[in-house]
Amino acid sequence: MIVVTTPTGAVGRLVLSGVLAAGRQVRVVVRDPERLPAEVRERVEVVRGSHGDPAVVDRAFDGARAVFWLVPPDVRSADLEAAFSGFTRPACRALVRHGVGRVVGVSALGRHFAGPAGLVTASLAMDELIASTGVAYRALAMPAFMENLLQQAGAIRERGEFCSVVEADLRLPAVAVRDVAQAAVRLLLDEGWQGYDSVPVLGPESLSFRQIAAIATEVLGRPVRYRRVPAAEFRAALTAAGMSEVMAAGTVEMLEAKNAGLDSAEPRTARSASPTAFRTWCAEVLRPAVAGRAPAGVPDATSRRAG
């Protein structure tokens, strides 16, 4: 039995599809089962509720051999530790209680980064918490998701720009959601690994935001520019959009850590490179979003690990 959390989310629904396609028994933890397609509900065991709830994970992990773990974004959280490790503690107790063998989690790059990194620091602390249970654990170490750019599709459509705190010419890795899900499925289906390690998924190339804007201009057929904004301005924009002060500060600290080398220490190798190039993703996902059409197969939920 494989347990999949966030089965209606951007990554989770693709992980669910992958393990079902492999013919595995699957149990999902979901607040609203009606959000699952009817044909999926017929093929899975459903545990209703939040996977941050002790009673829910106790039911969900009973008899499980492997778990896909992803902490859902909580943009209104008043405490970074609570948003990551606090949410995960009940699951850690249930992992031990039920003798779950393996966990694959979505985390972040930066295990060897010395400075503070906001959301990333909190995510890495969650990894250590899971590993402390003794379960075999693979943390998928993520750079920015390409899908984070969908949050600015309206600004690209209306003003021809997207913004961040990141330096314009700093080349950074980015990964498509589909590639993250594929990496997770491979690990969930492979019963041969043990211990604790991180697994970087870095995309096929590193690009600067200036290069991303140039590619978007070509693919979308309209001018797109990148505008770097001061940290205080970006933080104010996040809180104006409904993010808590704590989460906004954690996001900005993460972006400033990227400028200081957070995502640059991990070398891209044949194993860590994933296939989807930004140009491909831009044509298949961003272009219909900017045109006001929902991209096929891409939900509106995106990772908090913004680029």
Shape label? globular
Query: What are the low-pLDDT stretches, counting only 5+ consecutive residues below 50?
Result: 296-307
| Count of runs of 4 or more consecutive helical residues | 11
Which value, in Å, is the CA radius of gyration?
Answer: 19 Å
Q: State the end-to-end distance.
A: 35 Å
Strand residues, percent: 15-25%
CATH architecture term: 3-Layer(aba) Sandwich
CATH topology: Rossmann fold
CATH class: Alpha Beta
Number of domains: 1
Give the beta-strand count.
12
Report the mean per-residue pLDDT as an integer. Answer: 94
What does this molecule look like?
It is built from eleven helices and twelve strands. It is an alpha/beta fold. The protein has one domain (2-208, 239-290): 3-Layer(aba) Sandwich (Rossmann fold), CATH 3.40.50.720. Helix 4 links the parallel strand 4 (66-69) and strand 5. Helix 3 (54-60) runs parallel beside helix 4, helix 4 (80-98) runs parallel beside helix 5 (119-131) and helix 9 (231-240) runs antiparallel to helix 10 (245-259). The protein is globular and about 55 Å long. The two termini are 35 Å apart. Residues 296-307 have low confidence and may be disordered.
Task: Detail the topology: elements first, then pairings.
Layout: E1 2-5, H1 12-21, E2 26-30, H2 38-41, E3 45-48, H3 54-60, E4 66-69, H4 80-98, E5 102-106, H5 119-131, E6 136-141, E7 144-145, H6 153-159, E8 161-164, E9 172-175, H7 177-189, E10 196-200, E11 206-207, H8 209-220, E12 225-228, H9 231-240, H10 245-259, H11 278-290
